[in-house]
């Protein structure tokens, strides 16, 4: 089952700190005996860093894949350059391919993937187009598309990380409900 919502243009973030959200997601995963792995683009390993902030995370976090160049994006998705060009680097197709490959190459129960591309399309410069997806071993998927308005690339990276950790928490909670 895939749940998807319309693209969102985001300018502000939720009040909870990203560290608090990550800790909450990890606690739920630990209680449910779920393992997580990530595939990241624009966040450059920031999600993995957040999810490995404590020794307790070793029982939950399996591994991370970071793809920053076009070549590495092909490697991490298993898609050809032509397929990536057709779908777009920031697309649900690329994000789900990343998540599938993470599950194939890890012992995680849930994969979180981020596919992104900076403006100009569709909203011009100062925009980061992002697709965030999760996939679990039972085939349950979540997907969100965002258009972050940003003044600096680092700001977009932080906004993407927050949105990704929130989606991961949602995926963990849904998987926990299905398991118990």
Tell me the radius of gyration: 15 Å
Written as H for each helix and E for each strand, in order along the chain, the element string is EEHEHEHHHEEEH
Give the CA-based shape.
globular
User: What's the rounded overall pLDDT mean?
Assistant: 87
User: What is the CATH T-level topology?
Assistant: Maf protein
Helix content: 40-55%
Supply the number of helical segments.
6
Q: State the end-to-end distance.
A: 18 Å
Q: Strand portion, in percent?
A: 25-35%
Under the CATH scheme, which architecture would be assigned? Alpha-Beta Complex
Number of domains: 1
Low-confidence segments, given as residue ranges, are 1-6, 9-13
- CATH H-level superfamily: CinA-like
Structural class: alpha/beta
Report on the structure:
- Keywords: Hydrolase.
- It comes from Novosphingobium marinum.
- Residues 19-170 form the CinA C-terminal domain.
- Its EC number is 3.5.1.42.
- This is Nicotinamide-nucleotide amidase.
- This protein is α/β, with parallel strands linked by helices and 180 residues long.
- It has a single domain (2-179), classed as CinA-like (Maf protein).
- 42% of the residues lie in helices and 25% in strands.
- Strands 1, 2, 3, 4, 5, 6 and 7 form a seven-stranded mixed beta sheet that branches.
- Strand 3 (36-40), helix 2 (46-51) and strand 4 (61-66) form a beta-alpha-beta unit.
- Helix 1 runs parallel beside helix 6.
- The longest helix is centred in the C-terminal third of the chain and has 27 residues, at 153-179.
- It is globular and about 40 Å long.
- Residues 1-6 and 9-13 have low confidence and may be disordered.
């Amino acid at each position: 089952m895939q749940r998807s919502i319309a693209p969102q243009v985001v300018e502000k973030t939720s009040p909870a700190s990203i560290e608090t959200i990550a800790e909450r997601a990890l606690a739920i995963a630990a209680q449910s005996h779920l393992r997580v792995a990530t595939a990241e683009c624009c966040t450059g390993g920031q999600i993995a860093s957040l999810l490995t902030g404590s020794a307790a995370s070793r029982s939950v976090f399996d591994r991370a894949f970071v793809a920053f160049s076009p070549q590495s994006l092909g490697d991490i998705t298993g898609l050809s350059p032509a397929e990536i060009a057709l779908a777009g680097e920031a697309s649900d197709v690329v994000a789900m391919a990343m998540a599938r490959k993470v599950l194939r190459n890890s012992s995680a129960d849930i994969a979180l993937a981020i596919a992104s591309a900076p403006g100009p399309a569709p909203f011009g410069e100062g925009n980061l187009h992002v697709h965030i997806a999760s996939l679990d071993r039972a085939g349950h998927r979540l997907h969100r598309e965002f258009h972050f308005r940003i003044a600096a690339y680092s700001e977009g990276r932080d906004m993407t990380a927050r949105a990704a950790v929130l989606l991961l928490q949602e995926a963990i909670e849904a998987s926990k409900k299905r398991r118990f």
